[in-house]
Amino acid sequence: MANVTDLQTKYSKLAQEYSKLRAQNQVLKKAVVDEQANSASLKDQLKQRDQSLRKQEQEMDSLSFRNQQLAKRVELLQEELAASEVRSKKGKGKGDSPSQQGLQTQSVFNEDLQKKIEENERLHIQFYEADEQHRKKEAELRVRLEKLEGDAEEHQAVVDGLKTKYVETIERLQSDKARLEVKTQTLEREAKDCRMRTEECQQQLRRCQSELNRQVKQSSSVIQEKVPFNDTKLSDYNSLNVPSHNRRHQLKARDVTNQALSFIQDLVAALLNFHTYTEQRVHIYPLDSSIEPISPLNQKFSQYLHENAAYVRPLEDSFLQLYQSITEDTVTVLETVVTLRNFAENFSSYTHFLQKILPYQLKSLEEECEAPLSTAALTAKNRELQSDMKKVTTMFEKLQNYITLLALPSVRQDAMPQSSTSAVFTQLAASLHCLHDAIKEMSKHYNQKADIEQELPTVTQKLRTTTECLLGSLGSLTSITGKIATFFSNNLDFFTSPGYTPRGCTVSLNPLQAESMLANKKKAAAYIHAIKTARPQSVPYREALSNRRILTSSTESREGLTQQVQQSQEKIARLEQEKEHWLLEAQLGKVRLEKENQRIADLEAQLAAALGGSQNSQTAADGRLTQSHEEEETLQKATGKEMTLCTSLVGMLCTTPTNEHVGDEESREELIKTHYMARVGDLTTQLQISDSKAVHFHSECRALAKRSSIAEKARETLSEEVKLANENITRLQDELTTTKRSYEDQLSMMSDHLCSMNETLSKQREEIDTLKLGAKASVKKNKSR
């Protein structure tokens, strides 16, 4: 689960970065659109200038044409003037009237010519001024166009960088998404397993409850019938008995302290992170310690912040001691909880630490306000943070006072009356809520300050990461203080409830009386334990549980084992019968063999006595002797039928045995019996061992078969998971290809647009150059004229 929370925090950070980059992209898009609008307006202005230039060229052409007409007229007038002068010279003697008329006309022509010359000069000046203005505007437009092209290139580079960054972030987010989907699937499977287990546990709980109810009913009926007295009422002898609600109170106290310990651990971690990141920020802003030394005030502030662990860690250690001191065999009230005093002392030392660093915090914020790039909004947020830090320190001082008051009864029992305890707990809960509100306001103002700082041009990536970490620690601090306040308010009734009380009494029990009562209870428990240890010990609980797990995990059932035992018993009985049968057969065969040997010896003796001197009789006797030996060998290898025949013959021959032969036969029978009994015992033990091995091998085979089936199921589930993972990979690959295609299409469109823009700009430049050349040529023509 820790890994899942880390992934969620990473995913949230990536989402925040994506939102910031998206906002920056929007801003850049707006800038590009504005620049495009500016370029369009400049194009319009250029068109207007071209139109005005054409108009001026037309006017210049008209003026040049008018000038040519005037020049021709001047030439005509000059020719007329010359003709008139010639005429005047010729006609000097004719009188004064024609000469006067010629002078008048010449003066008129001179005035007219002077006016035309002045008008021509004025037109040349206007044309020159218009040409100069056109050149200046053209140069300005070219400079502005080059600047806009550079800005467009820069914006395009920024857009390309953002696109690559977006692609990387999208790929990273997709990989994180896939990883989180795998995690969610595993968690869903675990959740399903947990639901199934909870259902099974609920069923077992119902069965246990029904069984316990049945046992309670049975025991209550037995108590009503068999117990002659009732000790639940108040008397002089049982006034110190511990009631059940006191034990519940003790268990509740341990549970509440355990929850409070987890909250204190989270609070300690959040405070450590907050002080550590504040120290790092002091080294970075307003002056970076890696570039230039920071102020002496911030150096001292950083030195104090570096010592925060010495004041924060003891809070967790002292509260852990408090939790360990609360057990089921103790009385947990304010008068007996001595370790609460250590927690109060450590909390007081941390409060003094906050009071010590408060002035340095305020001065450090003032230095940030005096920074050269600090704005009015940033200064206002620093002022709000100063007031928030003062409020937080004040609330910690209030909490210190209330915790010190709660720790006083453990030092002196009459330090605080019972009636004031509920008021102290109520005020403590209210102070916790106020602390949560103050830290929440400080976190909000810090977030606003961070947003303002992001807009500054001198903000580095190191400062941004440190600020984000500081905001994360403030968020965790806000959440944990809210949890502590809610937890304390929910358990306020338990904190303000009275202490230990005896049965049937409304007056709370004195802690010293309760301690003595518990001491007596421990003595009684030790006595009962000593009595129990005198009896033969039973199987320990853990060993019984392990045996039960072994029995339940075994693949053999009880019925199979009983069947195997019955089969083995039947085999043993059958083998015992066969053993007795073959023992009897062996004894009979031995007896028959001895009797036959005896009979053969007797027959040989009789034959030797009857036919003592005769060779034929000797050879016959030898033949019968060899035949008797062969018969003896055949008797040893005979079957059951031959042995039955021999038993009949032995019965016939054994009618008159001697005493010595009978004793020898009995001793031999005993030896044979003991030998075959030992042999049969060895065979039965070997048979039992082989049967047990066969049973063991059979159980192992069944277990292996079950394991193989389970492994097959696991393989099928894993193959399904692999298929799902492959499908997800293919889907993500398709999405990646589509996004790549879309981005490539957008880039191609933008490149085409840029090419078209370049073509239009080149055409406009060519038109401007041609117009300039035309204007220069016309000016040269006018000047030559």
Explain this structure.
- Its main location: other.
- GO terms for molecular function: RNA binding.
- It is found in: Early endosome.
- Residues 138-218, 715-742 form a coiled coil.
- The longest helix is centred in the first third of the chain and has 131 residues, at 96-226.
- With 785 residues, the chain is mainly alpha-helical.
- The chain has 16 helices and no strands.
- Helices cover 86% and strands 0% of the residues.
- Helix 4 (296-306) packs antiparallel against helix 6 (339-369).
Average pLDDT score: 76
Number of helices: 16
Beta-strand percent range = under 5%
Structural class: mainly alpha
How many β-strands, per DSSP? 0
- What order do the SSEs take from the amino end to the carboxyl end, as H and E? HHHHHHHHHHHHHHHH
Shape by Cα distribution: elongated
Sheet having the most strands: none
| Poorly predicted runs of 5 or more residues | 226-244, 502-509, 614-622, 624-629, 634-661
Radius of gyration: 59 Å
Report, as a whole number of angstroms, the end-to-end distance: 96 Å
Portion of residues within helices: over 70%
Notable characteristics:
Protein phosphatase 1 regulatory subunit 21, mainly alpha, elongated, 785 residues, RNA-binding, single chain
